[in-house]
What we know:
- The chain is about 35% helix and about 25% strand.
- The protein is an alpha/beta fold.
- Helix 1 (about 20-30) runs parallel beside helix 9 (about 170-180) and helix 10 (about 215-225) crosses helix 14 (about 380-400).
- The site of cytidine-5'-monophosphate has 15 residues, from helix 12 and strand 16.
Amino acid sequence: xxxxxxxxxxxxxxxxxxxxxxxxxxxxxxxxxxxxxxxxxxxxxxxxxxxxxxxxxxxxxxxxxxxxxxxxxxxxxxxxxxxxxxxxxxxxxxxxxxxxxxxxxxxxxxxxxxxxxxxxxxxxxxxxxxxxxxxxxxxxxxxxxxxxxxxxxxxxxxxxxxxxxxxxxxxxxxxxxxxxxxxxxxxxxxxxxxxxxxxxxxxxxxxxxxxxxxxxxxxxxxxxxxxxxxxxxxxxxxxxxxxxxxxxxxxxxxxxxxxxxxxxxxxxxxxxxxxxxxxxxxxxxxxxxxxxxxxxxxxxxxxxxxxxxxxxxxxxxxxxxxxxxxxxxxxxxxxxxxxxxxxxxxxxxxxxxxxxxxxxxxxxxxxxxxxxxxxxxxxxxxxxxxxxxxxxxxxxxxxxxxxxx
Length: 405
Ligand code: C5P
């Protein structure tokens, strides 16, 4: 059982998604976890303590001033008890309290008093989720070291559609399972590039591409979950930095190359997921280019950008190098040619002619090639694809004698 003996404190706050928590408790228990439920006052409007006590097999705690409960295990003792604190659902109000360090009920007090890792699973109306105040609170919590599981997009209890759905209990259990999975890349240093690059034409215009950065961020998160020390060199994207990952923000391909090379000594793994612009304007105009009616349109002279991954693969002490490629035709042949030409150890290729995957999508399907293997990963979330690739990196590194077996 993946969670055998793990102590999980499950905080339940007052949102409609609380009705899913008995199923969540049951699945965590089935996976071997010992679950202690702590409810806020508002949570009682959506799910009963009786149900949660029945599935967890432990009395539910909900009151800082319950002297009988405090007598059997005081709140400070309870705060020391868990291996992991999971709050699902986490309402906008609870996120605001946690972000400011408010401790005005049992759950918020426990979070403040606990040194255990914190996972928050927000669920709310999409407008509440997208409100700058909520986004600010989420960013604050992530910066303080909490892991925030992004809510799903879809039909909401209020009848509206948008981001704010609590992930299904299976997904939350899967996340907890990976958290406790053996950290196979402990001690390994990895650099991941992600997102597009932006190549300036003048102060207000630039050349870029459709890369959302999602697959690169998922790779960084997965490597970090496996225990690697990860630096994510990211082009301009609007994504939350993954938990436990150092993020270096860059704009152009030259900046990305310089940021990578500055971190290339003592590097074990390099994963180039960024969609680096192949060309940049030879010079960027210092002032905004003006339209000149009647004159020919200005020509933009392009020059080639450095190939970052090939540069890394040519380093005298090269890391294990993984590339990504997006192709529209003869997908595998083109990827194999890149594997050889850029001297990569591994390349993941996706078919971007299928518009339902890749770029902005949350899912992907890739073929993973090495010099001697070819493996197809069918459509899955970018996070699951990243986990599968990281698994293959672990296997390859072990064969490379970089990791102790
Ligand atoms: O764009 P292309 O298909 O050649 O990208 C294949 C791999 O090369 C990707 O891993 C990408 O991040 C990397 N690349 C790079 N620098 C470039 C172009 C591509 O690191 N200038």
